[in-house]
What does this fold into?
Amino acid sequence: MKETITIKTLAKELNISISTVSKALNDSYEISIETKQKVWDLAKMLKYNRNPSASNLRSHKTKTIAVIIPEIANNFFSQAINGIEEVARQRGYHVLIYQTHENTELETAFTESLLSGRVDGILISVSSDNNNHDHFATLVKEIPTVFFDRVYEDIDAAKITTDDYESAYNATSYLVECGCKKIAYLYALNNLNAGKQRMAGYRDALEANQLVYRDALTVNYDKDAELNYQNIKQLMLTEQPDAVISSIEDLALPCYYVCKELDINIPGDLKIISFSNLNTAPLLNPSLTTITQPALQMGKEAAAILFKILDKKHFEPNEWLTLKSTLIKRDSTSCP
Amino acid sequence: MKETITIKTLAKELNISISTVSKALNDSYEISIETKQKVWDLAKMLKYNRNPSASNLRSHKTKTIAVIIPEIANNFFSQAINGIEEVARQRGYHVLIYQTHENTELETAFTESLLSGRVDGILISVSSDNNNHDHFATLVKEIPTVFFDRVYEDIDAAKITTDDYESAYNATSYLVECGCKKIAYLYALNNLNAGKQRMAGYRDALEANQLVYRDALTVNYDKDAELNYQNIKQLMLTEQPDAVISSIEDLALPCYYVCKELDINIPGDLKIISFSNLNTAPLLNPSLTTITQPALQMGKEAAAILFKILDKKHFEPNEWLTLKSTLIKRDSTSCP
DNA sequence: TTTATTTACGAAAACGTTTGAGTGGATTGC
DNA sequence: GCAATCCACTCAAACGTTTTCGTAAATAAA
It folds into this structure.
């Protein structure tokens, strides 16, 4: 490893002071264009790279943001990160990734550790396993934070979500239009706003169509995939619904498997709609009708909001942006 | 924002020197256990957080690694990152993510910028769009780097790949066993070792089974998805193969669409195998036979190797680890 | 010409931490 | 009993920037 080259090197080489070099590199108005040019040229020639630690230490700007999500190996989140990374890169920012695996303790550990000035801001989609979120109230006062998709409505920070209520409502209504009378619901994220809104949309749509809501027609998500499978199977056997709405992708797929096992025909015997960002939805057997969230756009918007906050020094009045999901009708709900 | 608390605060509070506090926090043998305990207690009480910039600047350790990949919204890579993040977290490391979108220039920009001491090491799966990779030769001398999945065999660094040749060979042989005589190949990553190996496995297996390789039976991947679709369609129309092996997921899916459009029955008229980490492969219509790479494990192993290098100060003799992919037989290749 | 203002740069103090070189005092070795 | 060793801690110099303040020279205003 050769000796590292610093602004000191440049200064010595050009016979100017360290501060002049620093200012030149930062394109300060204090420095003449000729000097700047000389500095830039030499910097490029010597492949000078500003030491981020030193820079951060002095300036308190890290050019880094953190993204905290439940799971990266998930279509929605990986697409969202895709969007985030893209706008971050355009602004010359770096992106740190943290997975909570739906574990609140890990989540808190991450957020606490980010208070040390490692990042300029945080993008977070909260874990679903617990609703004690007091620490967020203090967090958002300490560091610019934007919540996306999974938010806490009572935390005073910028938020971005999708129209969960409306899309669940519309999906349910659509099933009713298709003639379904007994619409089951696969319930997840039940201690988060998103989960509650989706459920509410489902219930309200049932009611608006003179159908009664019954607990027996719902299955609650469990961490244990096998249990989910069994619960769904039980639902199919005992209630024999003619349609099912899944609030998350991870419950729709076992549903397909159950139907395979029980020889339930989709969409003949059972129609299925799921919240999902699966890009193979059109290729499933049968192709799956989905409520698809604009994941990529959501990531971009979330990052954009964060940068807006970072640009102005003061904290913004918390803005809450809502994007529209789209109901993509496919074979799993085709009317005969 | 309240005043930040530093080791200075702790030192003053406990009436000991700054260096004692620092050493205590780092669990140095120079400090008595009683003093350490006092420092730790107070640190916890005041929620002290070590300032990473200052620490990095002085110690030249960032506790951060970078992951450079083509695309995050891809099953293989998101699963790999999942593994990487997990072992990084266990070691208290932070993970930076960079997407190249298969763009070599971006890739070089990233690696160059990482030379500034922002990270302790790099995990990279290289971009496929170009094979000029001279800059990597110097990169790996400057900073511990591990290549995973997409590697350059001539770069002197640690690598981890899967058995691309064998798995392609076996998949092809399997198709022959199923009675296929005209096996097409969807060719991607052609200027990378992985791509070449897969192709070689395919060719050699053909030869070993007295089948001739013909260029006309291959389609080259293009960035333009529509073009891929047309090329595959053309292949089906003109050559009417009885099987196809896709070297990447992104070519297998259009293949399904083409078959739908042309009313080609899978697996009756055409059998399909694809390299893929799609978790919905069993649910496709028909379920897709895949060569599945151990993405999660690969991420973990890659990170493990990097940490092994970081643990010892000196650079390791480049080790090249190969993991096994698994051929998962499903309906898209079922023999009649 | 004198005075004010601008321009372009330099000196030096931070930022918060780590770390090697001390330093008294106690303990040990011979 | 004296030197050597060890213990537990302190001092102060780094690490590479940014930034405030100061200032000489050049220009403009008077």
The first helix of chain A runs from residue 7 to 14. Residues 306 and 312 of chain A are 10 Å apart (CA to CA). Chain A touches chain B through 52 residues (CB under 8 Å).
